[in-house]
Structure formats: structure tokens, C-alpha cells
Design a protein that fits this description.
- With 170 residues, the protein is mostly helical.
- It has two domains: 8-117, no CATH class; 125-165.
- The protein is 42% helix and 2% strand.
- It is built from six helices and two strands, in the order βααβαααα.
- The chain has helices at residues 12-18, 49-66, 97-101, 108-117, 125-147, 157-165, and strands spanning 8-9, 93-94.
- It has a two-stranded parallel sheet.
- The longest helix has 23 residues, at 125-147.
- It is elongated and about 80 Å long.
- The two termini are 33 Å apart.
Length: 170
């Protein structure tokens, strides 16, 4: 009935692993293409599920075969080994606040707020009050109908809505 947004979360290591960046939490940003060497430059180009998958494909099809004769196998390409394990967009993965405060996570909160602001309506106090009042009245009507045995507790939302549309019985 209502659309919802799935947000992934966990500690920095888990988020890195879920995004296909296993063992890269301390070396690369989970949200942008910056490595720890260039974090001081600010936010880099953001990762997307597509760019993670392309980078993982490059690692698997080009980097690994090219390193076949090397003593040490490469650990990833731009911090990526595999495509993301989930379909949750990269900007909706959260890391702990402490990690953010320590600078381990780029401006994640700001990006999530911007994302939410584009999907959540901003309401005036009056509109919020009216909607709350409407919910209260709906609850009161439901209680009244239950008390009068006009609505069974197991009726579905559709039956409840149709009951509201029918004329009052006398």
C-alpha cells in the first residue's frame, strides 16, 4: 500500500563486504572512489551498483588474468573484488555514527537526507495536525463500529473502506 525504502546498515567492515569490497573498509571509502591516500581531497566520485559491478568485472576478467604469474595475487581493483551482494543503492548503506565522526565514512548522512528530502513531502504544522486528527477520527470510528458489532476484528482494510462508503444503517 505504501512505498518504502530499504536502507542497509552495519559496521564499516560489513558494509564494505556487502558492497563487494571485502577487506577494504580501512583502505577505501564505501561510498565514493577515494582511497585512504586521498581522503583529504574530500568526496570522490560516488559508487553506484552499476559502477561496482563494472569494476568487479574488470577485476575478475582483466586484473586477475594479467596477474597470473605474480607471487601475490591482487586484492581488488579500486577496492572492489565482487559486485554488491544486495540491490540496495550504495548511498543508502549506513555505517555507525562513530565511524562517521572519525571520518571513516564520507558525508553519508547528508546524502541520505538529500535522498529522503526528494521523496518525503514537507508539511505545514497545520497539515500534520489535520492528518493526525483524521487518523484519530478513523480509530474512533473503527472502535465505535467494533462496539456495535458492525465490523468484525478480522475484516480486511478493503472491507473497512467499503464499510465507510456505505450509508449508515438505522
Amino acid at each position: 500500500m505504501y512505498p518504502f525504502v530499504v536502507i542497509g546498515g552495519g559496521d564499516t567492515e560489513w558494509v564494505a563486504c556487502a558492497l563487494g569490497k571485502e577487506n577494504m573498509a580501512g583502505a577505501h571509502c564505501n561510498h565514493c572512489r577515494r582511497s585512504k591516500k586521498d581522503f583529504h581531497l574530500g568526496r570522490g566520485e560516488p559508487w553506484s551498483l552499476t559502477s561496482l559491478a563494472q569494476t568487479a568485472r574488470t577485476f575478475r576478467e582483466e586484473i586477475i588474468p594479467a596477474a597470473a604469474g605474480r607471487k601475490n595475487a591482487p586484492t581488488g581493483y579500486n577496492g572492489v573484488k565482487n559486485p554488491s551482494m544486495f540491490c540496495i543503492p550504495v548511498h543508502l548503506w549506513a555505517s555507525p555514527i562513530l565511524h562517521d565522526e572519525l571520518g571513516l565514512v564520507k558525508d553519508w548522512l547528508t546524502r541520505v537526507e538529500k535522498f529522503c528530502d526528494t521523496r518525503i513531502e514537507t508539511l505545514s504544522d497545520e497539515e500534520v495536525s489535520l492528518r493526525e486528527h483524521l487518523v484519530i477520527l478513523g480509530d474512533m470510528l473503527e472502535d465505535l463500529l467494533l462496539d456495535q458489532d458492525d465490523l468484525s476484528p478480522k475484516e480486511t482494510l478493503k472491507e473497512y473502506e467499503s464499510h465507510l462508503k456505505t450509508p449508515t444503517r438505522r
